C-alpha cells in the first residue's frame, strides 16, 4: 500500500505552516480583543494608518490589494470600522466609483496601541528564531512573490487563452 502522506507530520510544510499560523493567530486574537478589533480589522486599520503616514490616499481597492484581502471582505471590514468610528469614508476627488478611507483620531489611538501590542508579541514569538528570522522572512517573501507572479500570469491567460501556464510553474 502506497502512503500518500509525508513520512512524519513534521515533514509536511503545509501542515507546519498551518499549525504555526493558527498558533500565531490565536495569540493575535487575544491581544486585539480588548481593543475591539479582529485581526482582519487590524490589518485594514493599520494599512489605512500606514497610507496616511505616507500621505497617500487609501481606497477600498488599494487596501484590498495591499493586504491581499478580497474586495468584498475589505468592503465589509471598512463598513465595520466606520461603525466603530475608527475611520470615515469620503467621495474620491476624481473617481466617482471610489471612496477615500481616512482614519479618525479615535482610530489612530486604537491602532497605535494595537500595533505596539502586536509588534511586542511578534518580537517574542518570532524572536525565538534568533538570527534565522531574516532567512524565515526571505523565504516567506519568495513564496509571496511566486504567488503574485502566478496570479498575474493567470489574469493574462484569461485575456490571452493561448498562453501556457506551464511557463510559470
TrEMBL record:
InterPro entries: HTH_MarR-typ (IPR000835), MarR/SlyA-like (IPR039422), WH-like_DNA-bd_sf (IPR036388), WH_DNA-bd_sf (IPR036390). GO terms for biological process: response to stress. Coiled coil: none annotated. It comes from the Bacteria. One of its GO terms (molecular function) is DNA binding. Residues 10-148 form the HTH marR-type domain. Keywords: DNA-binding, Transcription, Transcription regulation. SUPFAM superfamilies: Winged helix' DNA-binding domain (SSF46785). PANTHER family: TRANSCRIPTIONAL REGULATOR SLYA, TRANSCRIPTIONAL REGULATOR, MARR FAMILY. This is Transcriptional regulator. It comes from Capnocytophaga catalasegens. The lineage of its organism: Bacteria, Pseudomonadati, Bacteroidota, Flavobacteriia, Flavobacteriales.
